Amino acid sequence: MSEQHREARGEAGPSRPGLFERLRGLFGLGGASIRDDIQEALEESTASTDFSPQERTMLQNVLGLRELRVDDVMVPRADIVAVHIDASLADVLSLFRTAGHSRLPVHGDTLDDPRGMVHIRDFLDFLAASAEKGRARRRKASATGTRNGGEEPPKGRGFGALDLSRSLAGARIIRPVLFVPPSMPALDLLLKMQATHTHMALVIDEYGGTDGLVSIEDIVETIVGDIEDEHDEGDAPSIAAAPDGSFIVDARASLEDISKVLDVALEEATDAEEIDTIGGLISTLAGRVPVRGEIIAGPHDLEFEILDADPRRVKRLRIHRGPTLAPAPQRRRRTRAGEPKEASATEAVTESPSAAGKKMPAAAETAPAAAEAPAADMPPENG
Question: How far apart are CA 110 and CA 201, in angstroms?
């Protein structure tokens, strides 16, 4: 039966192979997937003339998106900025100002009791509506007072008359959030956010606790790179060189960035296979969360001095190259001639605190000739 007869009867004929498939068959290249072909084309050096570096990066990120899971893009629990459901509107307003986010998760007693989220647009709409109701009541009271011969109340008291002591729960502006497991593919979460018009998801672990948070911006940034607006200045983890040759580092800094600065391969360390940040590496090396002031020995003759930490995580640290503990200063004693002289190892042990109160012969007393001879040859000290 001809193709025209099939079209007339509404039947679909066998699909024809495309030009690309026919060319692959002609050269005997087999039936490789289009994804593999695109990846190979992007990796070839000749592709640099067809794509700009930005286009190649974005295309590679798109192809790699299906391999990312939610826990690869989420904000960890320790970095979540949230608000209590019984917080006052004044506290919510202050947190919106300092956090710089447009959405804040709402919780009960802890983050493991999530109640939803509050959007800054809903919050401002509620404040504006409350101010408008207040102005309407004042206009009505003003009209009534004027008719009764009273004085007209002052104007211009819009937002200044708002009652910000009201609780967030009483405002009824809390929206639902999505709850997803950490193993969910990031691409599936992106599609779910688009379908439900909900752009925030809480990552829940197997025990029902909150493990992290994901916004739609976090997923989009895996494709186009970091998105920074006018209020995102200085949010990147800092790595600052100190005058003594050490580095003061934010614990959230990535191992890749630290490795580039120090010219070492920290990301290839045995214990760093599934670790992304320098703070995570230090906690893994120590087997716990180190306390402030502690020094942790690391790979490549590095030492990590903890500058700031809390019971949950390391916040800031100093990286030293080589040992940071200087040898104890040698003690000095005076010879019979009154000149300072370095105490020997035997004398240091003899005069140690553990031997305090015990009269023990020193090496100089048992062999005075041997002790005084070097002292006579010792050059005088400067100053």
Answer: 17
Spatial contact of 203 and 146, defined as CB atoms under 8 Å apart: no
Side-chain half-sphere CA neighbours of 363 within 13 A: 14
CA triple 83-87-93, angle to 5 deg: 75
- Per DSSP, the residues of 272-324 read GTT--BHHHHHHHHHTS-PPTT-EEE-STTEEEEEEEE-SS-EEEEEEEES--
Is residue 289 a contact partner of residue 282, using CB atoms and an 8 Å limit? no
Please determine, for residue 152, whether its predicted confidence score (pLDDT) is greater than 60. Answer: no
| DSSP one-letter string for 26-77 | HTT-----HHHHHHHHHHSGGGGGTS-HHHHHHHHHHHHGGG-BHHHHPEEG
pLDDT in tens, 279-331: 888 888 888 888 888 999 888 888 999 998 877 788 889 999 876 544 444 44
User: What's the pLDDT score for residue 87?
Assistant: 95
Contact by Cβ (8 Å): 351, 343: yes
> Using an 8 Å Cβ cutoff, are 75 and 103 in contact?
no
- Do 183 and 70 contact (CB within 8 A), yes or no? yes
305 touches 318 (CB < 8 A): yes
Tens digits of residue pLDDT in 190-241: 999 999 999 999 999 999 999 999 999 999 988 888 776 666 655 566 888 8
Please state, in angstroms and rounded to a whole number, the distance separating the CA atoms of residues 260 and 192.
37
pTM of this prediction exceeds 0.90 = no
